[in-house]
């Protein structure tokens, strides 16, 4: 396993990618002023138990009103009955009818861009292919012009920062975690705001129109800022998950050629391959929770109003949950990984990501049977300690 991590140059803090196991499933970090949960059972508990843990980890920080406005409406930060209410209404956007349309649209786009690349001996898998397919599909879901998808790259830039959530002053003289996440997104917010204003006046059959009509528990509509924040939240969690998962899966197939041959010989293994990739090389490597009561986790007593960093990537390598966790096995079953989260905050766009990635790989394996990573150009990864994945433009492939 050390060979896998060293071959691709993963950062040292992704210890689980080297087959290393933590000494304890839950630890306290004095340096960072937060708890760390690594074990599968412990991470699952923190994600699932709404009586002891809250996804609104920002509540532990003394954020000013200007900063708070950037998170109001973000589904990932919502809790309680309001979260369930809005999530239920938004889930209508991912109906069986939409998924059926999604399948045909992704297939159409994937073949269209494959046609443009088929005669090349080398291309960038993400920026020349996947980003276009996923970006167009997501812009159509929102109801915005496809050209405006270029603004989505601002979210990528956020993932390229070293920032991580901690109540301890890092003493580097730089902006704090929340400021780093919000300020670079202003142009994206302005673009989305224009479309929100237009859809509020002239609703159509798209997600922005749906959001403009969502009613909160008090009967009021979501505000303009809340709609924008909601979109940015699912943009980061949903749309970017597709290129991350595809890039990570390519790394796995390159590293485990015997597994790659199985999938090439039997395309029905593609869905299982993608689930195993989510487990083995989890894109959203960590999440955060705030305790809303005194809790016991992994044998440790954790007081109320504590910050917990939950390591989904490490939990997905827990030998107590997964036999031979450091082996990449496209036939692994069962595979109850935590790659899409768990509990009430399970990824609302998970089904969309599964459909997109499955069809993309079906097209890739059909149109480019000799596809492999260019050994002369090392992949480029996001710098964020919270994510594990190749960034846009960071994965060159050979087709011959």
Tags for this entry?
400 residues; five-stranded mixed beta sheet
What does this structure look like?
By secondary structure, this protein is α+β, with helices and mostly antiparallel strands. Helix content is 44%, strand content 9%. The strands form three sheets. A five-stranded mixed β-sheet has the order 1-2-8-5-3. The radius of gyration is 21 Å and the shape is globular. The two termini are 28 Å apart. The model has no long low-confidence stretch (mean pLDDT 93).
Q: Brief overview, please?
A:
The protein has 400 residues and is of the alpha+beta class. The chain has helices spanning 2-8, 40-48, 65-68, 80-90, 96-117, 126-142, 153-158, 177-182, 186-201, 207-213, 224-239, 241-255, 257-265, 270-280, 312-315, 350-367, and strands at residues 26-29, 34-37, 53-54, 122-124, 286-291, 295-297, 300-302, 307-311, 372-373, 396-398.
List the uncertain runs: none
When the domains are counted, the total is: 1
**How many DSSP E strands?**
10
Integer average pLDDT: 93
Helix content: 40-55%
CATH-defined superfamily: Cytochrome P450
- The computed structural class is alpha+beta
Overall geometry comes to globular
Which sequence of SSEs, written as H and E, runs from N to C? Answer: HEEHEHHHEHHHHHHHHHEEEEHHEE
Strand residues, percent: 5-15%
CATH architecture: Orthogonal Bundle
CATH topology, anyone?
Cytochrome p450
* Rg calc: 21 Å
Strand order of the largest sheet: 1-2-8-5-3
Count of runs of 4 or more consecutive helical residues: 16
- The level 1 CATH classification is Mainly Alpha
Taking the sheet with the most strands, its summary is: 5 strands, mixed
Distance between the termini: 28 Å
């Amino acid at each position: 396993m050390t060979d896998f991590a060293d071959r691709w140059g993963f950062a040292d803090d992704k210890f689980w990618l080297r087959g290393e196991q933590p000494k304890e499933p839950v630890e306290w970090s004095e340096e960072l002023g937060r708890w760390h949960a690594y074990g599968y059972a412990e991470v699952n508990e923190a994600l699932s138990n709404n009586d002891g843990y809250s996804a609104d980890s920002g509540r532990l920080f003394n954020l000013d009103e200007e900063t708070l406005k950037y998170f109001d409406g973000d589904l990932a930060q919502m809790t309680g009955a309001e979260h369930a209410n809005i999530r239920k209404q938004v889930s209508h956007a991912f109906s069986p009818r939409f998924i059926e349309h999604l399948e045909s649209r992704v297939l159409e786009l994937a073949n269209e861009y494959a046609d443009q690349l088929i005669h090349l001996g080398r291309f960038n898998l993400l920026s020349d292919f996947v980003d276009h397919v996923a970006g167009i599909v997501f812009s159509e879901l929102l109801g915005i012009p496809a050209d405006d998808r270029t603004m989505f790259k601002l979210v990528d830039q956020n993932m390229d920062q070293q920032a991580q959530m901690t109540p301890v002053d890092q003493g580097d003289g730089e902006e704090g975690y929340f400021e780093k996440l919000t300020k670079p997104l202003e142009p994206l917010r302005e673009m989305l705001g224009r479309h929100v204003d237009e859809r509020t006046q002239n609703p159509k059959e798209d997600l922005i129109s749906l959001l403009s009509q969502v009613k909160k528990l008090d009967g009021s509509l979501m505000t303009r800022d809340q709609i924008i924040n909601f979109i940015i939240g699912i943009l980061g969690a949903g749309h970017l998950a597709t290129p991350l998962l595809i890039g990570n899966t390519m790394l796995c197939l390159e590293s485990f050629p015997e597994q790659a041959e199985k999938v090439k010989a039997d395309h029905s293994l593609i869905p299982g391959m993608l689930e195993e990739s989510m487990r083995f090389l989890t894109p959203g490597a960590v999440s955060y929770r705030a305790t809303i009561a005194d809790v016991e986790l992994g044998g440790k007593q954790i007081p109320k109003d504590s910050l917990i960093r939950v390591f989904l990537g490490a939990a997905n390598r827990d030998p107590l949950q997964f036999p031979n966790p450091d082996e990449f096995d496209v036939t692994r079953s069962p595979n109850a990984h935590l790659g899409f989260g768990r509990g009430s905050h399970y990824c609302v766009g998970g089904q969309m990501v599964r459909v997109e990635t499955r069809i993309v790989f079906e097209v890739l394996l059909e149109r480019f049977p000799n596809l492999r990573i260019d050994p002369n150009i090392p992949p480029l990864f996001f710098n964020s300690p919270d994510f594990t994945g190749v960034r846009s433009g960071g994965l060159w492939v050979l087709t011959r």
